């Protein structure tokens, strides 16, 4: 079993403790994923939408190989959660992000994914500001969104007030929980943001942002190949970053998707779970909506 | 009784001349008996050795000259090594992998490989120890060194570029397994 002793695990048997009002570290935690409003956006309302979507270029790993791959990754220290432990540039762990008390999980999941992807590329650690993305998209309102929405911001950009925004700045330029409106038009901020852009991803661009999905097999295959995944969970009203595939029930068949769990990197600080991570299993493991970055601009800063 | 020559030939010029009396010489000095441990009186002198060495050198010179004359001079096969400059243009052990991100990150570049390369990084080196970069990724100005390495000719992806100061450089297809990759890296980065 690749679950670690003392690891925080959320499954079918206990997930209700993590929805609704969740208090941790003495404060109520915020989420931020908003469900699709089918009244406003009924099925088929998005141009080119169709019921079954398939992002065809995801490199698949056969499920029969998953148990062995998980073991190999754990044995060689290759899981993203393991590499993260010494990747902050000083031999220590990259800290998790902190969204509290804003409903900006949907921007933090993408930002976490970019930090993880930079880590896997070998680039130096830079703490990026999810608040910059969310503040611009929501015009400084504390509102929910979708992971795909923030991914679009760092991939193809966003226009507001005649200005095109692209990328995500570091916290040196836009502090976390910063609400200074002047930053929206600060050229230095957005020049820095251009250093951190996604150039390629596994993104179902033909679907609306709230409908962009990756199948469970695709999500599992991607994290096995060092690609972090932005994961939206409707049961949790929350968006987080998927980083490791976990063999939660080794006695089950390798082709049984319920055998596997997903270790996620949350944005509720390092005091949550194990340094900000936990494992989702059972029917709670795989996301309802997902996108994944796979290449970024090469920038040392 | 036989007669002497003089009796036979009195007054002959061939007649033997009476030997002139010879003054007695001083008797030869008696040889000094050798003392125990003393050098034998027959040991070669320094002058002897000098002459011997000179003769030996002369013989060697004559023989050597004859050998060169008949066989020519053949030098041993000593390889001439011209030190290679680090392919990255900066000192330090460094690795770059250029790959197609649509295929996922290369499986052979696992946690152990990352740990090995990081262990070779000098504390004062401001550059990353390694980068894995999609073949189409753009580069910022501060990554110019890596951009140049990625623009070098390559035949396939994933492709590895290894730079070292003491052991030369390597460029070629990325080994498919972590064991093969580690063996390759150790050739340039050391044990």
Helix content of chain A: 10-25%
Give the rounded overall mean pLDDT of chain B.
Answer: 83
Evaluate the radius of gyration of chain A.
18 Å
Rg over alpha carbons of chain B: 46 Å
Number of H- or I-type helical stretches of chain A: 7
Give an overview in words.
The complex is a heterodimer of chains A (301) and B (191). With 301 residues, chain A is of the alpha+beta class. Helix content of chain A is 21%, strand content 17%. Chain A contains seven helices and eleven strands. In chain A, helix 3 crosses helix 4 (130-137) and helix 3 (105-121) packs across helix 5 (147-155). Chain A starts with 8 loop residues before the first strand and ends in a 5-residue tail after the last strand. Chain B has 191 residues and is of the alpha+beta class. In chain B, helix 3 (111-119) packs parallel to helix 5 (178-189). Chain B is rod-shaped. In chain B, 21% of the residues are buried. The interface between A and B is medium-sized, with 32 and 29 residues.
Search tags:
heterodimer; A: 301 residues; alpha+beta; 7-stranded mixed β-sheet; two-stranded antiparallel sheet; 11 strands; 21% helix; B: 191 residues; 4-stranded mixed β-sheet; 4 strands; rod-shaped
Question: Briefly, what is this?
Answer:
Chain A is of the alpha+beta class and 301 residues long. Chain A has helices spanning 66-75, 80-83, 105-121, 130-137, 147-155, 187-193, 216-224; strands spanning 9-10, 23-24, 27-28, 158-160, 163-165, 198-202, 229-233, 238-247, 260-265, 277-280, 289-296. Chain A starts with 8 loop residues before the first strand and ends in a 5-residue tail after the last strand.
């Amino acid at each position: 079993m690749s679950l670690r002793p003392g690891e925080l695990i959320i499954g079918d048997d206990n997930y209700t403790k993590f929805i609704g009002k969740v208090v941790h570290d003495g404060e109520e935690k915020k989420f931020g994923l908003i469900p699709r409003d089918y009244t406003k956006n009924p099925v088929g309302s998005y141009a080119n939408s169709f019921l079954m979507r398939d992002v065809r270029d995801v490199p698949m790993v056969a499920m029969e190989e998953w148990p062995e791959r998980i073991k190999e990754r754990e044995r060689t220290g290759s899981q993203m959660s393991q590499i993260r432990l010494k990747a902050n540039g000083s031999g220590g762990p990259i800290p998790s992000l902190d969204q509290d008390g804003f409903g900006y999980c949907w921007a933090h999941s993408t930002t976490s994914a970019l930090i993880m992807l930079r880590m896997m590329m070998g680039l130096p650690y830079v703490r990026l500001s999810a608040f910059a993305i969310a503040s611009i998209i929501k015009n400084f309102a504390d509102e929910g969104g979708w992971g795909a929405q923030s991914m679009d911001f760092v991939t193809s950009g966003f226009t507001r007030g005649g200005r095109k925004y692209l990328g995500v700045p570091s916290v040196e330029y836009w502090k976390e929980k910063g609400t200074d409106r002047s930053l929206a038009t600060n050229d230095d901020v957005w020049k820095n943001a251009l250093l951190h852009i996604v150039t390629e991803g596994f993104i179902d661009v033909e679907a609306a942002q709230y409908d962009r999905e990756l199948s469970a097999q695709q999500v599992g295959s991607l994290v096995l190949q060092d690609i972090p995944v932005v994961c939206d969970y409707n049961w949790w009203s929350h968006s987080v970053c998927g980083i490791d595939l976990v063999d939660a029930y080794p006695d089950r068949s390798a082709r049984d998707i319920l055998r596997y769990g997903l270790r996620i990197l949350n944005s509720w600080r390092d005091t949550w779970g194990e340094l900000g991570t936990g494992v989702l299993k059972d029917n709670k493991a795989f996301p309802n909506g997902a996108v994944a970055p796979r290449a970024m601009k090469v920038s040392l800063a | 009784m036989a007669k002497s020559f003089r009796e036979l030939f009195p007054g002959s010029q061939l007649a033997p001349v009476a030997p002139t009396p010879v003054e007695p010489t001083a008797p030869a000095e008696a040889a000094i008996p050798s003392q125990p441990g003393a050098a034998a009186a027959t040991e070669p002198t320094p002058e002897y050795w000098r002459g011997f060495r000179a003769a030996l050198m002369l013989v060697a010179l004559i023989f050597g000259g004859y050998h060169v004359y008949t066989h020519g001079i053949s030098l041993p096969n000593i390889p001439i090594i011209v030190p290679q400059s680090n392919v990255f243009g900066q000192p330090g052990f460094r690795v770059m992998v250029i790959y197609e991100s649509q295929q996922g990150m290369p499986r052979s570049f696992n946690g152990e490989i990352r740990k090995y390369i990081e262990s070779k990084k000098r504390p004062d080196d401001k550059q990353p120890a390694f980068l894995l970069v999609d073949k189409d990724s753009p580069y910022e100005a501060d990554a110019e060194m890596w951009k140049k390495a990625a623009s070098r000719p390559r035949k396939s992806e994933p492709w590895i570029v290894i730079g070292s100061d003491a052991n030369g450089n390597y460029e070629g297809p990325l080994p498919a397994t972590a064991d093969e990759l580690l063996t390759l890296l150790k050739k340039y980065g050391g044990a």
